[in-house]
Amino acid sequence: MSGRLAVVVGASGGLGRAFVARLAAEPGWSAVISVGRARPDDWPEDPRTPFLALDLLDDTALADLARQLRERGTLGLLLIATGLLHDTDLTPEKSMRAVSAEAMQRLFAVNAVIPSLVAKHLTPLLPKDEPSVFAALSARVGSIGDNRLGGWHAYRASKAALNMMIRCQALELQRERPLAVCVVLHPGTVATDLSAPFARSPKTLFTPDDAAQRLLKVLSRLEPADSGGFFAHDGQPIPW
């Protein structure tokens, strides 16, 4: 297969899956390739939306993924939708007294290390002389300048680390692939498992499909001059 590819990493999550559905309905993509740790049992058998399962913290597995993608076509869009906020034994801290090394390591691994390794292996597939987009989902709480409440220390810090890594990647891409757009995005509060325990008002809660639509619209309006930025779902910039 040869053509223009869109790749969604973290596609088994609610928002990642919505991205895949939205992109598959767009013209211009020969395939929308989903990547994650495990293929969902109900994933559709569609050659245009294959699911590739691998360990996202494994350099060797990611290098092999890059080889597979290179054989399939040209990478035009790379979206990273991985994220971890809470788990059965992981709860956002309300004070510094609750910070633990174990929680920080888990959150940094998912929220900062995985996107960084994906960028390492897959951004070299972006074309050098054609427009392309690389975006990772962050969160407004990862903004240092916007932090007026404190709390959620490890999650905030892991997202701030993600923001810095993508900012660094954007600067490299400006030199090597000047037509590329490389940004971090804040999706708002989305009705997914990640935000379920903390969603306060249905009025400010987006469905995954609505959030995906909003974010794809933001990406469609960005230019290479916007690369390295941090943008909300409404297109407004967010301070670092």
Task: Please explain how this structure is put together.
The protein has helices spanning 14-24, 59-72, 101-122, 153-176, 208-221; strands at 4-9, 31-36, 51-53, 74-80, 132-137, 180-186, 189-190, 205-206, 230-232. By secondary structure, the protein is an alpha/beta fold. It has one domain: NAD(P)-binding Rossmann-like Domain (Rossmann fold, 3-Layer(aba) Sandwich). Helix 1 (14-24) crosses helix 5, helix 2 (59-72) packs parallel to helix 3 and helix 3 (101-122) packs parallel to helix 4. The chain is globular, with a radius of gyration of 17 Å. The mean pLDDT is 93.
What is the strand and helix layout of this fold?
Blueprint: E1 4-9, H1 14-24, E2 31-36, E3 51-53, H2 59-72, E4 74-80, H3 101-122, E5 132-137, H4 153-176, E6 180-186, E7 189-190, E8 205-206, H5 208-221, E9 230-232
Parallel strand pairs: 1-2, 1-4, 2-3, 4-5, 5-6, 6-9, 7-8
Helix pairs in contact: 1-5, 2-3, 3-4
Quick take:
The protein is of the alpha/beta class and 240 residues long.
What labels describe this entry?
240 residues, globular, seven-stranded parallel β-sheet, two-stranded parallel sheet, 18% strand, 5 helices, single chain, Rossmann fold, alpha/beta
